[in-house]
Queue: 3 jobs
Job 1
Amino acid sequence: MKITGISAAVITLLPRVAFAARNSLRTVRTGIQPGNKTRLVIETSARPSYSISYPANQVVITLSNTAANRSLAPAMAAGTLVKAITQVQSGDKLQIIADLSTPISSIPRENIMLLNPNGDNEYRLVMDFTADTNAKTASATTTTIASTKGKVTSEPVKAKNTSTRKYTIVIDAGHGGKDPGCIGKGGTKEKVIVLSVAKKLRDKLSAAGFNAYLTRSDDTYLKLAQRASIGEKKHADLFLSLHANANPSRSMKGFSIYTLSEKASDEEAQKLADAENAADKIDVSGFEQFDKDIRIALSSLQQHAVAAMSVEYANNCASQFKRAKITQQPGPDVRHAPFAVLRSTVPGALIELGHLSNASEESLLKSSSHQDKLVAAIVKSVQAYDFDV
């Protein structure tokens, strides 16, 4: 999202009743999204509890137990539906009032996003909307999205990406050539399964309007740094590395999703990273395998932004898998470890599609219908990922 200009929008603060605020307003800004959507972003120091109402020619966001920011000047982009933004403090509630040039009846729930802290950003309540010619202007309608106890009851699913820009996804089918990956009891090779899924995923993402590329399209061996560099060279917006797992316990099964971190989230994640990195014995503690420019970027603040964007995608991907009723490996939705293949300036995740060491899951992973199910869930996760926030 691009934010331009500072407006002389009005800031009105009513007398405040003394209270111990658990939350405070950090920024308010507007922007333009693809499809001529207006984006309104409210950033707060803590996770907000909020409700939204729609009086005539306005959107009113009420934040519970939140203090106003008297010195704040909203950042207003040109060409949005928002003419001015006003703060009104009433007791322990803060109202953010957006005056609109054209009325709207409501903001669809799927166009309201609550984002966790990311890099230099704190909690962000993001709303995307367009003019509504059928909007009711006579009375206010209130949509309560969250409880008033400081905890969000549920986070809405983001709208499918409908940007006019074609985002680029690089799909990495793990292993290949002289490196078969793990091998199931029935002889199924990981490199074969993930290449099959990767090709299906490329085709489905291409059909959905994305630029989708494979790091390998045949039984070729690639060093891990080569795989990561393909994402860089393609200027990818997202890098997905597909794998299948193995476990000493034959009963273990289910998918798992990982993002890059210098420190593993748990011992199992570290062991998996060690196994995957052993494919070419890359030194996971250094950046020597990468071009100078990439090493510089990786040693800068971009690491934090890329990591946060990767986690955001991975959490959504895990949710899509669970919604599709794909078995999840016991443990957290997303884990973190120093995977060499994820070392780049491109946000990404490593997806373990299941366990070849489990006989029933080995059969599933070989099944075309199950592969299609996995691909459908990943496609939804990419469509729901917000590339611009």
Job 2
Amino acid sequence: MFIHEYDDWTHFRWDTDAVGALQLRAMHRLGYLAGRMAAIGFDSQLSATVEAVTNDVVASSEIEGVRLDTDEVRSSVARKFGVTLQKSKDPTHYVEGIVEMMLDATHNQKEPLTAERLFGWHHALFPGRRDMTVGAYRTEEMSVVSGMFGRERIHYRAPSPDRVPAEMERFIDWMNREDNVPGILKSAIAHLRFVSIHPFDDGNGRIGRAISDMVLAALDGAGMHFYSLSRQILKDKNHYYKVLERTQRSDGDITEWLVWYLNAIMAAVDDSDAMLSLVLRKAAFWNTHSQASISDRQRMVLNKYLDGYDAKLTAKNWERIAAVSRDTALRDIDALVKQGILVPTPGRVRDIPYSINYTSHAMEESPFSNVAIESVGADRFITARYKDSTPLRDRVSATDIRRLDDGEITLQDLAYKHFAYLLG
């Protein structure tokens, strides 16, 4: 039997001990991220939001095998937030519609969910399609099937189309009530319940994830969404589908689904934390060097590293990235060294690695103390205290760990790189 074939199938149950512990951890991570965002400027918040929404839109579509142009999506999102990009690309009407759908879900999260609103989202996903029912509930049976003809495997069979309107009416009523379950669990249950009803011919996964984000956005409160659950689902897509299938074949015990979902949220927050660090470091760098003389080519290469390119900054890599000769690469680098933007590794005369100078503050005046590297699984983090009080922590790239081990940079160098945004 499938989950919806049981009487009162939406009266889900779960292991409260296992889920409760994870729920507390997830809420702690969300609170940490919100606190970090609250401590930075509004412009940096907008930049982080643009990246998070872009990641969410692109990943949610890619889960379903639909590849969107990331630059188009980012340009559409940035335009709606009033953010100016160095590199912009005119989005298609299709991309604009998908972005509007996602922003309606996350930034109008206090508006009631209605059938008409869902129909509008469906129209945005499938503009002009005539080979399917668009902007209305499905009128045919629906099964998720894999395998060759004659040897098909049915993964899930949704409720019959005659049940869909009533199921959706109950779902929408449940969504609009505030007295059922805590928000973070409501997001998980809403996703499961919606995709189990499977009310549309297509697009149920993307709309289901938009509904999940809608509930999560209400927890953020500030109208800005700083992490992408869809991006994490994409990374763990096979596991996502397996857990979903097992849950949809259960008798209403959704513990496994909630455990997977809460872990996915925590992973998404960690991923967002790393992305936020890049945004902050990049903003600090360009603020410090706003008056410097930098060519378009130099800016392009610098931005590649500032956006997280994990390789040593050498003349050889500069030559390859910029598609120029070695002599031109060396002239580009030398001009930046003379302006204090790049710093060569002392004592090296061949294949010199350079460090990016994120701040104009002198090293001997460092406000960072107790700087250390700690390991968590396969990841390495730099920890420190700012002015002997505020604890700091950030993920360190594999390249920087190698440079640290090789003596090319110091712990204080890393502290200035990762926490320069605090210096104003």
Job 3
Amino acid sequence: MADKVAASDQGSHEFVALYNDEVEWQEGDAANELLALPPGVKVKIFNFDPVMKRIDMKVKFPPGYVEPEHSHKSWHSIVVLDGRMCVAGKDLRPGDYVFGGDIPHGPYEYPDGCEVFCVFMGEGTQHEWDESKHLAHESEWEAETDAGKTGVESQKSARASGKVSAE
């Protein structure tokens, strides 16, 4: 992971100022190695401090994506930047906040897609989730956009066919 980090991988606590476009989105194997989620997410890592066990990143979820109920060996703070995150009976929009830790939380639905800023601290960013429970998930939230409606149907079909394993 260290070679994919924008800032120092040695735990430096020096000042860092980055433009968003200075850091590239990672997807596929790189995103899956970091988060261990079903395919489709992208990550943009801004800072990694192995001493503090902290990683600052953006995560982009495509329209219709469902993040399984999960836990981590760490905790995370999330702020919605764009789109919608639907979890715990709430339809969260830009500026809204989520905290999760080593206790199962979710599932999270992203009916119209979503971009978040996330800070993980702890033993790892990998999600621990039950694939059979995820495959049985029934979407609760309706999309508001055409791209979202297409994405929700695509994700439902993928779960119904059992094609949501992490890459």
